[in-house]
Structure formats: C-alpha cells, structure tokens
Amino acid sequence: MGMTMLKGSLGTMVSTVLMIVGMACGTGMNGQTASPPPPPPPPPPGQHAVELPPGQGRATVLRVCSKCHSPLILVANPRTREAWEETITKMAGLGAQATDDEFGEILDYLSANVSPQTVKVNVNKATSSMLQISLGLTDKEGDAVVAYRLKNGEFKTIDDLKKVAGVDAKKLDDHKEKIEF
Question: Which residues contact 143 (CB under 8 A, 6 or more apart)?
C-alpha cells in the first residue's frame, strides 16, 4: 500500500495537506504519535450508536481507526473489499499509523464484517443514509422511513415497515435478512 511520490508544486501542496492531516490525527512532522484523542462523546438523546461487529481484527480497527475518527463511521458506510482497500490506502496516505500486517488485518476484518452483504441495519435506529446503503433504498425512501418512524414510533415487523408510503416493498423483501428491529 505504497504512495507514489509527486514532484513540483503539486507534490509540495499534497505534502503540505498530508502533513496538516497527519498533525490533526496526532502525528507530527517527525512521524511521532501524540497521545490519542479523548473518546467521542455519547450520542445525543434519541440517537443510538451502532457497534462494530465482533470478529478477528476488531481490536486493531478500533486502535488504528479511532485515532482520527469514530470507527462507527465504518458501519455507516459499508464497502466492498476493493473499496475498503482503496479507503485504507487513502487513510495510510493521510497518516494512519499501522504495520502492513495490521493494515491487512483491518482489510480482512472490514471485508468480512462491514460489507453491504453482511451489515444488518436496525430500522429503528438507522439514519436515512444507512437505510439507503444497506437496503438499497432511494434518498426519498430512506427519508420516508425515518420520518414515519419519528411520527409513529418504532417498527416491530417487516409488515410495519411496508406501511411507509412510497417505499418499494420488494426492496424490503429482497433485503429482509439484513433488517433488524
């Protein structure tokens, strides 16, 4: 997962951006890691955090990725193995600190546990974006599910979910194994 060196003013600009991001992530110009940032605050009332699923490599993901952002963003944005590899390469370029073996472990964990095929979505806690990614809903359908839930309370069954006006019931049936209540 190496980086190509850039020359000239573009290379200088990229180097400057990478240095700034590295400093924001707790690494200085000399590559030394500062103390980790405090843990993120709990979610506001009415919102629920989603945890990374258990699995080999979870601890490495938490240790490496939470230095710059909440690892919960990973669950909210499941990707294919190829897309995770691109993301990890980008994060390494932005200053993520891990060995090649650890980056490989992170890739294996995310590919197995945080892909569009494996991530389950709790329709009573998910954002519109999470519903779109996990269930293949459109922006309008995802927004409609969240609005319906806020107005009428939690869903208890898939039949409750199918009552949301404008949501394609076939999409829900096609992804019912991913739906949690």
Answer: 128
